[in-house]
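Open question from group meeting: does this chain pack into something compact, or does most of it stay loose? Before anyone orders reagents, we agreed to write out a predicted structure and look at it together. Recording both the input and the output here so the notebook holds the full record.
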Amino acid sequence: MRHLELKIPPPLVALLCVAAMWHLSKITPGLGLPTELRWFLAGLFVLVGVALDLRGLLTFLKSGTTVNPLKPHQASALVVTGVYRHTRNPMYLGLAFLLSAVAIFLDAPVAWLGVAAFVGYITLFQIKPEEAALRRIFGAAYREYCERVRRWL
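Structure tokens returned:
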């Protein structure tokens, strides 16, 4: 399965998960949560997701390192400031929050499988290969960072 490593851009993986979540929600019963509650909760998750994505992206841009998730070997700086003090993968975490917003809005418990699929796929085929590349580039500094900061939350 190594042929899937660093091949599909994470936003595209998220969109594929949204499509699957939507289709699954149409063939399974929902919880019946009030529409206003779903909008409110989904909105909160969207705000958190967008904030994480933007803060992660802006911190990368400010540091001058690559933002291309398919080419982690081009990293020129180890980013450990800002939101990266709390999570090693804020942009992927942000996408997971956005997918959670979709699951909440769809009101179908089975839609949460899309969030789980995203986290599993991204961890296996994106994050772990990125971590290997960053260990090669930054050595002990990256290993120490990994000891201090969790992968997701």
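Observations to bring back to the group:
The chain is about 65% helix and 0% strand.
The chain has a mean pLDDT of 98.
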